Amino acid sequence: MFITRIFYGIAYFIVLIIEIIKAELDVATRVLNGKVEPVVFEIKTELKRPISQTILANSITLTPGTLSIDLDSENCIIKVATISPRSAGEVIPFEPYIKGMLE
Q1: Which of 3, 65, 77, 97 has the fewest beta carbons under 10 Å from its own?
Q2: Concatenated DSSP letters of the chain
């Protein structure tokens, strides 16, 4: 079990870094093109533990162009602001890795 958690932790960091780089390029092109359409929406997460939800919210904020505004731990909902309309899967691609690492 411990080795599996380590694997998910390493995979999480790799996916997070890749998503940060992709988001940096996306934000740079949107700023240069002027195609900024801010959106605020709620994402329902599968994560049950507050620490897992907090790590997910912080990961969203670390990714350029997204910001976690509010975290409702009881209902497992994160309110997110993005620079452009996106699906929930595009905003939280690292959720399965956090789940495997901490839950």
Answers
A1: 3
A2: -HHHHHHHHHHHHHHHHHHHHHHHHHHHHHHHHT----EEEEEE-S--SHHHHHHHHHHHHHSTTEEEEEEETTTTEEEEEESS---HHHH-TTHHHHHHHH-
